Amino acid sequence: MIQSADDIVRGTVVHANICVLGGGPAGIVLALELAKTGKSILLLESGGESPSEQAQALNAGEVVDEKLHSPPDRYRQRVLGGATSIWGGRCVPFDPIDFEARPWIDHSGWPISYDEVERHYAAANAWCEAGEYEYDARLATPGGMRALLRGFSPLHFDANGIERFSCPTNFGDRYRARLHSAPNVRVLLSATATSLRAARDGSRIDTLDVRNGRDCTFSVAAEQFVLAMGGMETPRLLLTSDDVHAGGIGNVNDLVGRFYMCHIAGTIGSLRVNGTADSVWHGYDVAADGTYCRRRLALLPETQAAMGLSNAVFRLHHPRIADPRHGTGPLSAIFLAQRFISYEYAKRLVSDVPPTYKTWLRHGMNAVIDSPSTGRFLLRWLKTRTLADRKFPSIIIRPRTNLFSLDFHAEQVPNPDSRIDLGSGLDRFGNRRLRVDWRYTRQDVETVATSFDLLSQELATQSIGHLSLASDERDIETVVRRDGAYGGHHIGTTRMGASARSGVVDRHGKVFGVNNLYVVGSATFPTSSQANPTLTIVAMAVRLAERLGALATRVPSIQESVS
Ligand SMILES: Cc1cc2nc3c(=O)[nH]c(=O)nc-3n(C[C@H](O)[C@H](O)[C@H](O)COP(=O)(O)OP(=O)(O)OC[C@H]3O[C@@H](n4cnc5c(N)ncnc54)[C@H](O)[C@@H]3O)c2cc1C
User: By CB count within 10 A, which of 49, 52, 410, 547 is most buried?
Assistant: First the structure.
């Protein structure tokens, strides 16, 4: 059943076995997996079925350096489905090395093994609609996928790993009917959790305060509470709930909100590939079930260990769109249409240096001179993206000159000084807004610089091509700062640890010291991997459902009382 919380009267107490806070992919998958157990599940979502300004305003907050990190009401979405209402759908599992304590990366190591997560990836793939759990290019499509760079056999990179793409599935749209029809699931929309009320000794959560769209407060009493509100709101609610736990719940060791990671991601360099155009394939292959798959170059774990690097991948990319010297009509058409592209995607497509009128003119000329390919591109986009159920994942344009750039997506190392905290402003419910102080380290820059050099050497030695940096890219830190934190991934702010000294939650996601409070989502990841987080978030939700499903229950069904 899906209802609006606006109809709930002040003072009502809603009872359930398990209360899940947040209706993004983590919360939706958890609720639907738990539905199989017969327990009563209450899913609270602050937004509605479609986006609204009123809900989105609750995401606003402060950022210490807006050049490095987007405002917190960008990228995140207060709506059923959460950020999957606008995500890209790239699905990649974490690697075994991500879970290891690596002596060269401080604070690395998960209290659980890769195998404990890996066994849930097949289910996660299904939830994300990313096809079967097969991430080897030789096996993912009938006959195997085409080579990225023909004849290239790198020593430091795995060229056979792939990423698979979700539709991209909006979890709110796709699973609404199932949420609605599950007899033991009740979804309350427009229900914003504002404070967790701990028992006097702090050992459990008794109730949760919730505000609806009419600003009425009601509460929830449940045996277990699970925070699935994303990597920013989860620490915020814990820090806000400080009436019994001074400094916030789970924060005895001042860890809540710290170790905030995104990904070090951006576009770098120019790769001129030797040989004919057909020696390169940087586009998508299609698996038997229709899933788009794409190869990438992943830094090998042995190289990471030998050189003290974090995890990283490179993808072949079209030349930088903002620079009209690429001479490619479709790219210039995208540049000219930037006003119509949403902030989250335009941010990566265009330059942060305001274009001069000459730049606009050159892009205009590219679009006109290369109009046949611009027209073909627009028609293909309409057919395979705009009108398709399973959408072509991104802009793939074969450069006329065999000239590419590189997309990099690298792990950010855990850093306690990078953090989410409470700011000074208040939201409309009187809760302190977020304050984001995202920081990268020298080690993050080194990973990009060294892996770029390694790739450049290997491409040259094997006569595959020439990889170079533009004059404004020679200082790699400038490149890292140019793109800043990847805005859609919020990781590590309630990290999982072996004990309360190293983590906010234990190996099951339970907050240390609070017996009935759990967290699910990338907030619990102690390290960030090279991989985008959602597939692993979903795998962890399936894992938590298994755990919570096995716990004994007392309350038989969802009830409501008015105090
Ligand atoms: C532009 C963009 C592209 C992306 N592309 C990819 C990609 O290609 N691959 C990938 O793996 N990931 C991608 N991501 C990231 C992906 O969307 C997130 O990892 C994922 O949505 C996180 O899921 P979640 O359920 O943990 O959190 P969210 O999706 O953020 O959902 C949290 C939910 O909690 C609700 N909520 C918040 N506070 C409260 C409260 N106090 N009370 C009640 N409800 C509350 C919110 O309204 C929201 O619906 C992208 C993100 C963006 C923005």
Answer: 410
